[in-house]
């Protein structure tokens, strides 16, 4: 009789351990799926922010280019003198002397 009780307890523990393994496997699978969804959403957010930033930079570059063209049209001599001086400064910075 004591052997049956011990054997029943052993089978119950064995069953509980198997159920625990199954539960842990399910939890890990759910955590992995949740992590993948989170990573995917983060990637989408990053791509969207990069697109927005690149559009903003593009607009700003176009505005600056427009202002430069306008300044060149209004005061071409001053623009050329400024470009010449900028060339001299950059030449001195990048020269090895």
Structure explained in plain terms:
This protein is mostly helical and 97 residues long. It has one domain. It is 95% helix and 0% strand. It has two helices and no strands. Helix 1 (2-74) crosses helix 2 (76-94).
- Whole-Å distance between the termini? 101 Å
Rg is 35 Å
Order of helices and strands: HH
Secondary structure class reads: mainly alpha
Report the mean per-residue pLDDT as an integer: 83
Multimeric state of these chains? single chain
> In percent, how helical is the residue content?
over 70%
- Residues in β-strands, percent: under 5%
Sheet with most strands: none
Basic shape = rod-shaped
**Number of domains as seen in the coordinates:** 1
Please sum up the structure shown.
The protein has 97 residues and is mainly α. The protein is 95% helix and 0% strand. The protein has one domain (2-94).
Write the layout of secondary structure elements.
Blueprint: H1 2-74, H2 76-94
List key phrases describing it.
97 residues, mainly alpha, 2 helices, 95% helix, rod-shaped
